[in-house]
């Protein structure tokens, strides 16, 4: 294979798997596509409503993006489309624009997808996938859980049939509390029944099917996954048959049939600048969510996904969503798991799902007229509550207070200030605490573990020491934020046993970097110790650090030596003293 | 000494040195005070003009702050008052307020000093002195040099006698270039002559005095330091005698005699919120500059200064400056060095200087009427150019590209975007590069140095290895920003020799922290290696890291063992293999 073909394959992973595509793949992919299509119809409508968009926009956002991911994506099971968190973030981004008409609102959502897609492609081209690692696991976990709670709360209004305008968790709860008396009974009946059915479907349906209908476990759990479809069919029928809209039950109403013409969304250019920051945040969150799902599924089949190529693939998906009347999309957890479990072998399953959804958009939308919004809200609530995992709080608390602070800040601020501030604060808190910790490093006074060449903390191990030799192991890279502190700490320690100490050895096994500020501090330490007639030595300096020290004048000024190992330092200096004595 | 007295002494260092004050101290302090007073009169006038304030405000800012520092300060030689960089920052902070009257402008400068003082005292009370360590040495050096160039450029208009309104280095140079033809010849003559004299005084005067007048080296260099006073007297006399204002030479003019009434500066409260951010920045920069000077001088006499008490002292100085009609102050380099060289023994020298300056404010100001502004500008130019040290660029480039990036960003942005953006960018660049570096850590494959218990990089040293045992030394704390990368890197390395490797040992001597995200990655590595029938071991895990691992379930899942030393790991596993073979 020439280098050029290889690069082409890297950019179009489809060339890799399409070559060996066979009948076995086709069967698996078609089955998975059929199941995912059925599951996605209510889900995509529901998420569009969550984003504040007309229901059909959810369908549009589920078709071309799937095809784009089929061409560019590296995961064999990921299903791209509207997801809960990104839909919520879309609503948050569009709310402050104050758009009056639905057309404008839809166009703005399209622009958001376009900007997000362009940003993702640019990140991919620059191989900046690693940037997403700034989101720590606790921050992601906290953010997803808090978003789940926020989304569930925001859907309660549809279950109760009351208007709620708040955007934060406390605002929403207070409004619901105040207006509880105005609950629409028929809406609540539909909503509560759907919720009850969906919760049961998730837990009990599969078990009941296996026990009573004698089907396989696999079939039963797939049937349980498409529970929302039964709820949609059942409640739509009931609403039509009992004429529930007359009792105040809100329904989806007329959904246009067909597919919008392809083209760029039209929007007042002055609004674009306001959408850039939200688009970047949506891109990063969407990317992290998608890559986590893809990696989890790939690990099960020992496949690998390419983080930078995934940026390109998600970027292409968002751009195609923008061109086809959709809104921001990413790889979703639930849909990908269903796709995987139902036997998807290659990304072609996604393309087949797209065909199924296109058919739905062209032919099935009239059937959705009597679909109650409460049903869709119940679907969302059940889906997002499964994302909520508050045990991360206890887990982080037990393991490390810094991790707890990050997850707590993320959750508290997401619930009270919104998703954008929440996630940004989580990242900021994580970084600040990291710098804070490295600025206050652990320093251990060490001695020799008897009978070994190993040196450990004198307070934790039984070790041999020499009163004339003070050995300090510095447990951090030396850099500007801790250089001065280290200087004070070492000199203060020497002053405590000023009469005995003849040598100070800095054991640098954990010093991965010495920057220019720290070099100045080392020079100062060397000079101050020289004034006290104490010699400064270094031991176990790593290769890259030593290379850099050699480029400075520090080693010329150093009063003592640089030892390869702490063992050599300790025994070399003990010897020197005996001779001197 | 009771604990209470000790705490009192910590808060009022004056109690410490005043107890043992003797005639020797008095002589030294009085001599130093006399010299510093003479030097400070022109300097404080000049810096006030640099800040855009009437000249007398510089005198006011030099009196009470010195007294406050005498009471609270821990440095024995630091002289507090107006300094170049803080004066420039004051001008930058006040310019956007658009104040029309001089009275309002002076009041706003006072408020800036008050806010800065309150912030410093709060930082001191919270023992937050370490926060200033976020300013790395290269950032400070770059900032001081760039500020020096900026200040020198800003003073050229006074030397040429042309109006210049730009605030950035390129703006100023362009305006001067365009208006060069409008230069006032008499002003240029005064300015250029003063510049020439001051540069000569700095370099040649001391040498000439020693050679021709047979004075001591010490006297000669002190005389050279007060060169500006001769320039002030000479040019003032000439301007009066030749009636130069008629030829367009700008003069200081009427300076009110006396001292303003003590009290809070009056200002529209709506302006206060705009001054908070600049006040914080001025506080931090001023503190860093002052503490560097104090520490340099203290080291020469083996004294120590207390960083947190210095915050209190500088805060008190700024508050007293605000109460007495002054503007933000800090410990200055030039004045402190002169004070030190002239023999100041205790902070009392500062109090004596304050008395001298009070006399100047009360009696000498009428003599300043004919003082040309060009003379003061020349004084500033010579003073600030001595701060400019462009070798830091080469020095940082040679040592580390990250340090170079920080110093370059600081200098370039200070010159082109102003001091506030410049220093903030320097800090941001330093932090981002630190995170960037730690996110991409060095990982060394290590083997045993023959005849020792020491393990080093196989690419740098002749070492013993075993094909069944892969030992990787991870040269960084494991945390969210590098966890995923580390996971990929370790697994990719194992895949390269998948058939041979039976054991992977992670040597953790440089791992100072494992956060929750990294713990998840370690779990994943353990699981993936287990799938490949490879055992994962850890060695040389530090005490604090081990404590934390014990609080998680990781050690229960770990397929291999945790060894105290890498030597034990290597020989233990080699033995295990022999048995297994």
End-to-end gap of chain A:
72 Å
Q: Bin the helical content of chain A.
A: 55-70%
- Which spans of chain A of ≥5 residues are poorly predicted at pLDDT below 50? none
Number of strands of chain A: 8
- What's the assembly state of these chains? homodimer
Rg over C-alpha atoms of chain A, rounded to the nearest angstrom: 31 Å
Strand content of chain A: 5-15%
**Continuous helix count of chain A:** 25
Strand order of the largest sheet of chain A: 4-3-5-6-7-8
Question: What best-fitting shape of chain A do the alpha-carbon axes yield?
Answer: elongated
> Biggest sheet of chain A: strands, sense, closure?
6 strands, mixed
Q: Which chains make the largest contact?
A: A-B, 69 and 68 residues
Mean pLDDT across every amino acid position of chain A = 87
Number of domains of chain A: 2
Structural class of the secondary elements of chain A?
A: mainly alpha
